[in-house]
Amino acid sequence: MIKVFNLDKKFGDLHVLKGINEHIKKGEVVVIIGPSGSGKSTFLRCLNLLEEPTGGEILFEGVSITDNNKDINKLRQKMGMVFQDFNLFPHMTVLENITLAPIKVKKMQKEEAEKIAFDLLERVGLKDKAFSYPKQLSGGQKQRIAIARALAMSPDVMLFDEPTSALDPEMVGEVLEVMKDLVAEGMTMVVVTHEMGFAREVATRVLFMDKGQVIEQGCPKKIFNNPEHSRTKEFLAKIL
Ligand code: ATP
Ligand code: MG
């Protein structure tokens, strides 16, 4: 579904991604772990061109998204993204947050968009919040709305950048539950997270990144129980 060839990213003199090669297949749940500053967010943001790669190529569903003729909006419709800090529009109700892109970008009728939004709200357990504003919601609720908003575009893949890192501990579980439901439905997902329990339970593959490279990867069992690389061992020793 996503093929990455020799992906390179520099911010000025800072070399953040150093030749990453990856193939994310349909239905995979890829969890990315690694120290702060290793390039996890930058990698995720390159996948949907929130950051422009400085080298290499990315194919999404067989089409190069790194050549100049790409249609960024079309691409982004097919990739849902969920951020650490929710990024909901504060001046809009929950319902308006969820229906905005389907109406504006997909030119969907308001009634249809709202029907889809209510179905999604039901799925994330927040039907009663449709007419609330983000500031009236808890962090966990905001993040579940952000997930519903991304799903409203019927994406082919969902990218998550530390979706639970800004949450109070008691709210982490409710967001992970929604994410696990998505896994059960077969959604292709790329998830940067420090939730190792989640990774162990649902990842089809774990990538360990350090200093702009994927140092080691494999099934969760291998990475967590039997890491090969000394840097992976060091990192895991600190967080587990
Ligand atoms: P964390 O776990 O703290 O979120 P990360 O692995 O996601 O870290 P990135 O956010 O990808 O790391 O950052 C990798 C490096 O690139 C860091 O040194 C960071 O300071 C730098 N960087 C990221 N975004 C920019 C930017 N827009 N301009 C300049 N430097 C940046
Ligand atoms: Mg990050």
From TrEMBL:
It is a peripheral membrane protein. The keyword ATP-binding applies. Pfam families: ABC_tran. GO terms for cellular component: plasma membrane. One of its GO terms (molecular function) is ATP binding. It comes from Caminicella sporogenes DSM 14501. This is Amino acid ABC transporter ATP-binding protein, PAAT family. Keywords: Amino-acid transport, ATP-binding, Cell membrane, Membrane, Nucleotide-binding, Transport. The keyword Nucleotide-binding applies. Gene3D superfamilies: P-loop containing nucleotide triphosphate hydrolases. SMART domains: AAA.
